[in-house]
Amino acid sequence: MNGSEQRAGIRHVPLEKLLGGISALELRGNRELAGEVTCVTSDSREVIPGALFVAVRGYCTDGHRFIRSAVERGAGSVICEEIPSGIEDGVLFIKVTDARIALAEAARLYYGNASDQLMIIGVTGTNGKTTTSKLITSMLNARGISCGYIGTNLCTFAEREIPLDRTTPEAHGLHALFRRMVDGGCRAVVMEVSSHALMLKRVHGIRFRAAVFTNLTPEHLDFHETMEAYASAKQLLFDQLTPDGFAVLNRDDPAAPFMAARVLPEKIYCCSLSARQDTSLACGNSFFAEITGASIASSRVALHFPETVVSIEVRLPGSFNVMNMLEAASVGFGLGLDPDEICRALSLVSAVEGRMERVGESCSGGMAFVDYAHTPDALFKVLSTLRDLKDEHSRLIVVFGCGGNRDRSKRPEMGRIASELADEVIITSDNPRDEDPEAILDEIEQGMNRDGRYRRIIDRAEAISVAVSMIGKGDVLLVAGKGHEKYQEISGRKAFFSDREQLLTSMQKSCEGEPEKECER
Ligand SMILES: CC(=O)N[C@H]1[C@@H](OP(=O)(O)OP(=O)(O)OC[C@H]2O[C@@H](n3ccc(=O)[nH]c3=O)[C@H](O)[C@@H]2O)O[C@H](CO)[C@@H](O)[C@@H]1O[C@H](C)C(=O)N[C@@H](C)C(=O)N[C@H](CCC(=O)O)C(=O)O
Ligand SMILES: Nc1ncnc2c1ncn2[C@@H]1O[C@H](COP(=O)(O)OP(=O)(O)OP(=O)(O)O)[C@@H](O)[C@H]1O
Ligand SMILES: N[C@H](CCC[C@H](N)C(=O)O)C(=O)O
Ligand SMILES: [Mg+2]
């Protein structure tokens, strides 16, 4: 949430009230003058008169450098780890050991402990957070529990949609959203909790009624450096359960026992796609999904709850989506919902934007999907699913790239996976951000089979258009990596771009412009 959104409903909270919850080492300045707080933020650009500015030492810069500017903009109080010299009277400085923790504590109090009035469900894992979170949100809303959602670039509640910059916002943005949700009548919220958020204490102090672990595979190693550190970040979520809280784990993932290490066995709900009972993990409750049929549109599944089995059609393709659904069902069970009701609600969900989303009709009789696979594991899962479920004699075509300013180790891996699983590969730009797009493609190419069939087309729109022209009868085209995104970021500038729209335009052109026979193979 940005400054102007915060201003839309300015709250005035006595500073004294916030001071009660912050572990201060030292206070310097005039406590009376600081008066009422009008906003809590760690970004000097969001400061309004009366704000409490929290100076955070970051990875790119140090928030202490912006204290003067925050004060010039009217900040009445400043939380910092080091009190600067030479800044005028009238400001109260609050020295703390950890400014990120203080930010979370101050924000929680400023927004009137809204987080305590919500049942909060957190979902972490490398892939599947958005899908699983949206399934849980839909299930709870369908059961009459007004439930908000906070996740990849979007917050929704009570018919409202608020765009977000991050998957998990900074603490002050998060608590502001909780307040709005409570005021809007929400009783629950499902939120994606990224490993960055856990490391950077964005969710410090929040208590989760349920915490879900989807899976762990290489990602964000530019930030965490090792898989051990990445896993440890995710594990932190499971220390933040409410006394009646429970953990839902993908038992088929080798990291599940690590996530469960500090959770009491009776609070562990294990989900598996296999009937085999693995004894390496003590589970309070076990859930098993038996896939009885699968097509490119859906899977037929028998969901085994602790005492009942319910048959359900999962209208999202791929066994990984069956696991997402099973985890959502386990959350519902833990919250006391009836298995039949859970399955009825979940079977109504037929699409999650940008996730295995089928787009338009190809005039040649093939089909196209947009998917947000931007990690090696996601690309592997999606391509394997489409490969297994497509017509045996047809081809699988993939268009993808890798984001700039992100984990570079993903690039050759994704190149290898695409060239092993797809019949035709076009590598192109994702969001190059500040990197040279050609250099990103060079790194993807390093993992690819050079004898295989692939093209390199730097312009994503052109890559999609060429891919569409390659679709023949029964062929399947996957455009991967950007899913729901409505922009492409090149050289630090974001311009409108939608894989879905680009596909529709290319398909329409290819159908209109080409003589019938050229659409046939
Ligand atoms: C690694 C990471 O997540 N960094 C985020 C983090 O940076 P940081 O704490 O190191 O802060 P910094 O940029 O060094 O700045 C230090 C402090 O100075 C402040 N500042 C800075 C400039 C200024 O003019 N005034 C000012 O007060 C900043 O607000 C900050 O408090 O806090 C910044 C302020 O909120 C974010 O912009 C920044 O996100 C970067 C840009 C980012 O891209 N993050 C991504 C990777 C991210 O968070 N992704 C996760 C996971 C996605 C997923 O897998 O789903 C997410 O949750 O979205
Ligand atoms: N359970 C899963 N296991 C592996 N891959 C998955 C799973 N669920 C979804 N995917 C793949 O990962 C992609 C991203 O899915 P989703 O957006 O649900 O994950 P996410 O964890 O929210 O991602 P992000 O970290 O970007 O927020 C999907 O488009 C699909 O390709
Ligand atoms: N949550 C991921 C999203 C990546 C999406 C992909 N399109 C890219 O830009 O790399 C990240 O911020 O790393
Ligand atoms: Mg997400």
From TrEMBL:
<dbReference type="InterPro" id="IPR004101">
    <property type="entry name" value="Mur_ligase_C"/>
</dbReference>
<feature type="modified residue" description="N6-carboxylysine">
    <location>
        <position position="234"/>
    </location>
</feature>
<dbReference type="GO" id="GO:0005524">
    <property type="term" value="F:ATP binding"/>
</dbReference>
<dbReference type="InterPro" id="IPR018109">
    <property type="entry name" value="Folylpolyglutamate_synth_CS"/>
</dbReference>
<feature type="binding site">
    <location>
        <position position="406"/>
    </location>
    <ligand>
        <name>meso-2,6-diaminopimelate</name>
    </ligand>
</feature>
<feature type="binding site">
    <location>
        <position position="481"/>
    </location>
    <ligand>
        <name>meso-2,6-diaminopimelate</name>
    </ligand>
</feature>
<feature type="binding site">
    <location>
        <position position="44"/>
    </location>
    <ligand>
        <name>UDP-N-acetyl-alpha-D-muramoyl-L-alanyl-D-glutamate</name>
    </ligand>
</feature>
<keyword id="KW-0963">Cytoplasm</keyword>
<dbReference type="Pfam" id="PF01225">
    <property type="entry name" value="Mur_ligase"/>
</dbReference>
<protein>
    <recommendedName>
        <fullName>UDP-N-acetylmuramoyl-L-alanyl-D-glutamate--2,6-diaminopimelate ligase</fullName>
        <ecNumber>6.3.2.13</ecNumber>
    </recommendedName>
</protein>
<dbReference type="Pfam" id="PF02875">
    <property type="entry name" value="Mur_ligase_C"/>
</dbReference>
<dbReference type="GO" id="GO:0000287">
    <property type="term" value="F:magnesium ion binding"/>
</dbReference>
<keyword id="KW-0132">Cell division</keyword>
<dbReference type="Pfam" id="PF08245">
    <property type="entry name" value="Mur_ligase_M"/>
</dbReference>
<dbReference type="GO" id="GO:0051301">
    <property type="term" value="P:cell division"/>
</dbReference>
<feature type="binding site">
    <location>
        <position position="202"/>
    </location>
    <ligand>
        <name>UDP-N-acetyl-alpha-D-muramoyl-L-alanyl-D-glutamate</name>
    </ligand>
</feature>
<keyword id="KW-0961">Cell wall biogenesis/degradation</keyword>
<feature type="binding site">
    <location>
        <begin position="430"/>
        <end position="433"/>
    </location>
    <ligand>
        <name>meso-2,6-diaminopimelate</name>
    </ligand>
</feature>
<feature type="binding site">
    <location>
        <begin position="125"/>
        <end position="131"/>
    </location>
    <ligand>
        <name>ATP</name>
    </ligand>
</feature>
<feature type="short sequence motif" description="Meso-diaminopimelate recognition motif">
    <location>
        <begin position="430"/>
        <end position="433"/>
    </location>
</feature>
<dbReference type="GO" id="GO:0004326">
    <property type="term" value="F:tetrahydrofolylpolyglutamate synthase activity"/>
</dbReference>
<feature type="domain" description="Mur ligase central">
    <location>
        <begin position="123"/>
        <end position="331"/>
    </location>
</feature>
<dbReference type="GO" id="GO:0071555">
    <property type="term" value="P:cell wall organization"/>
</dbReference>
<dbReference type="InterPro" id="IPR036565">
    <property type="entry name" value="Mur-like_cat_sf"/>
</dbReference>
<feature type="binding site">
    <location>
        <position position="194"/>
    </location>
    <ligand>
        <name>UDP-N-acetyl-alpha-D-muramoyl-L-alanyl-D-glutamate</name>
    </ligand>
</feature>
<dbReference type="InterPro" id="IPR035911">
    <property type="entry name" value="MurE/MurF_N"/>
</dbReference>
<keyword id="KW-0460">Magnesium</keyword>
<keyword id="KW-0131">Cell cycle</keyword>
<dbReference type="GO" id="GO:0008765">
    <property type="term" value="F:UDP-N-acetylmuramoylalanyl-D-glutamate-2,6-diaminopimelate ligase activity"/>
</dbReference>
<dbReference type="GO" id="GO:0009252">
    <property type="term" value="P:peptidoglycan biosynthetic process"/>
</dbReference>
<feature type="binding site">
    <location>
        <begin position="167"/>
        <end position="168"/>
    </location>
    <ligand>
        <name>UDP-N-acetyl-alpha-D-muramoyl-L-alanyl-D-glutamate</name>
    </ligand>
</feature>
<dbReference type="GO" id="GO:0005737">
    <property type="term" value="C:cytoplasm"/>
</dbReference>
<keyword id="KW-0547">Nucleotide-binding</keyword>
<keyword id="KW-0573">Peptidoglycan synthesis</keyword>
<comment type="function">
    <text>Catalyzes the addition of meso-diaminopimelic acid to the nucleotide precursor UDP-N-acetylmuramoyl-L-alanyl-D-glutamate (UMAG) in the biosynthesis of bacterial cell-wall peptidoglycan.</text>
</comment>
<keyword id="KW-0067">ATP-binding</keyword>
<dbReference type="InterPro" id="IPR000713">
    <property type="entry name" value="Mur_ligase_N"/>
</dbReference>
<dbReference type="InterPro" id="IPR036615">
    <property type="entry name" value="Mur_ligase_C_dom_sf"/>
</dbReference>
<feature type="domain" description="Mur ligase N-terminal catalytic">
    <location>
        <begin position="37"/>
        <end position="111"/>
    </location>
</feature>
<dbReference type="InterPro" id="IPR005761">
    <property type="entry name" value="UDP-N-AcMur-Glu-dNH2Pim_ligase"/>
</dbReference>
<feature type="domain" description="Mur ligase C-terminal">
    <location>
        <begin position="354"/>
        <end position="483"/>
    </location>
</feature>
<keyword id="KW-0436">Ligase</keyword>
